[in-house]
Fold this sequence. Notes:
Elements: H1 2-5, H2 9-17, H3 23-41, E1 44-47, H4 49-64, E2 76-80, H5 107-114, E3 118-123, H6 157-164, E4 170-174, H7 181-187, E5 190-193, E6 214-218, H8 221-231, H9 249-252, E7 261-265, H10 275-290, E8 294-298, H11 306-321, H12 340-351, H13 354-367, H14 373-393, E9 399-403, H15 419-423, H16 430-435, E10 439-446, E11 452-458, H17 464-476
Helix pairs in contact: 3-4, 6-7, 8-17, 11-13, 11-14
Amino acid sequence: xxxxxxxxxxxxxxxxxxxxxxxxxxxxxxxxxxxxxxxxxxxxxxxxxxxxxxxxxxxxxxxxxxxxxxxxxxxxxxxxxxxxxxxxxxxxxxxxxxxxxxxxxxxxxxxxxxxxxxxxxxxxxxxxxxxxxxxxxxxxxxxxxxxxxxxxxxxxxxxxxxxxxxxxxxxxxxxxxxxxxxxxxxxxxxxxxxxxxxxxxxxxxxxxxxxxxxxxxxxxxxxxxxxxxxxxxxxxxxxxxxxxxxxxxxxxxxxxxxxxxxxxxxxxxxxxxxxxxxxxxxxxxxxxxxxxxxxxxxxxxxxxxxxxxxxxxxxxxxxxxxxxxxxxxxxxxxxxxxxxxxxxxxxxxxxxxxxxxxxxxxxxxxxxxxxxxxxxxxxxxxxxxxxxxxxxxxxxxxxxxxxxxxxxxxxxxxxxxxxxxxxxxxxxxxxxxxxxxxxxxxxxxxxxxxxxxxxxxxxxxxxxxxxxxxxxxxxxxxxxxxxxxxx
Length: 487
């Protein structure tokens, strides 16, 4: 069974389609692994064994009938619990959504199922995807598989931990300011935030609608490319979905990187980036140069305004989006209330956790009369300048390389009482969301404590194939993705 759980998604799908192993046997192996390991890690909020068995049985039936079940035939996949799943609870790791069972599937769920994937469960997250450590979950703590005393990152910490611990070969997360890339770095996996609009957001519970994007975690570039071929493409149900077809990333992500222009933005190496992380990034740069890339330094002068701009834009959109939770339509509602206003106030007070309340208050203030121009409008102007920094940078280079995080994973509880220090964990990842460009975090070695480093690659819009090609070139020249935590 342990041999099965070390297979990649690409290997599983091929073996199932060829009849070498059944989808049910694959599922059983991963369910056994989850039962053994997840009590220590806490990646899953719910394991959907019965529904997964039905899906795996259906895949096997198609194989027996000579029907191709799809690109992800029999591949177990975990879903961050802020994506709607019909008939299965969707909690956003919040008390407020206790008992909420969506009547429909998110588009990404439908596309996975149509491709033969077996959805095995829903993973933990920071409540409503607001956080950088997975400690803001109201439903439990997720631990880093490399060191159970450390955080897995956030907000998609459960998905990153599930992939790192080999509980699934692929998991989906969402990235609003680094919530895929940061936990990928902390957990030593690959995590891709696609171009804004490349993957449908229909059925994703909104945090900040102009920033949110769904993307995958995996341990190989092939698996990222495979699942992105399934997830990508226009969706008429999402008004922000790009009018494009799904790219053929499996083919396009192969090839050498000779002559590729890689830029090092100096502002991403400012104070706050630990020396071991800085050294890890430069070791990756050296390896890429060995592989034929050409490296140059450049400036992105508005980078220093990224953090304040993001923490006005994102909370403002969250304030608007979370206003729908009034105790009437979704999940929990307070009892013994005197009016609709009292109902909404008490439901939110009882249901939302401290970090969610903090961001709603900041966002509401930034949008309030007399402050809108001073804060939100100004932040949106800065966002435009940050976008222009990227446009100018990509006139001179093909890809940017930066740290993913300032440090490796920190201890559980270490930053819980310091919201600003926690937010600084995302300092290197926020700009890609403000600009709408794709970013990927790839493993780049380990520190003296055995904790993974992550390095971030950023490219222009719709350059996922290029980012995957560079990632593949580097990872093929190292053995980082062959390493796995001992649990």
